[in-house]
Amino acid sequence: MTRMNTLRNVAIQIDFADSAPLYFQDPVTIIETDNPEEVDTCMRKIQSAVDNGFYAAGYVAYEAAEGLRPEYPVAPGVETPLIWFGIFKSPAAPPEEQGKCPFHLSNWKLSTTERDYEKNIERIRRAISRGETYQVNYTARLNAQFLGYARSLYEQLKASQKGGTVRICIRDGTRFFLSPRNFFFSGRETVCL
């Protein structure tokens, strides 16, 4: 089911490699879904909001591909919405600096077993050798236990990146999107992926 919620305890920070960050807070609504059949509808609602002068900030999970192109298989068991976007009237003022606050992060653990990882890599090699694809970006989830201040962890991770990063704080947790590539760049009135 497509959910359009109003929610106040949301903060989004988009950091750019080439300009000042953008901050968003207190969305007028949130557009989200975990149903592949609603991905296109959500994308249209987000575009409509932007066309009407609002700002949209959020994410589209890789697994949302199934909702746009059903022939693209995706891994089952996604634990986050396929699409999650806050719709905002305008960017917010930057938050006050809080300084470095402590946090602890346990060792990262791969969510895929070694056996499954090896099977997946072999499947990819076979698909490439058969000419079904020429490239695959294989990703796997890493999990760790975290205690402390999420913003401090984000700032540390951001400092190690060369590209754009995004921090989204939502009622049920914080999500970080970091990449060595600069996925985010700003234009006069737009932010592009």
Short description:
The chain is α+β, with helices and mostly antiparallel strands and 193 residues long.
Can you tell me about this structure?
The chain has 193 residues and is of the alpha+beta class. The chain has two domains: 3-107 and 144-192, no CATH class; 108-142, no CATH class. Helices cover 22% and strands 28% of the residues. The chain has four helices and 14 strands. The protein has a four-stranded antiparallel beta sheet, covered by helices on one side. It has a four-stranded antiparallel beta sheet with strand order 3-2-11-12, with helices on one face. Strands 7-10 form a two-stranded antiparallel sheet. The protein is globular. Residues 180-193 have low confidence and may be disordered.
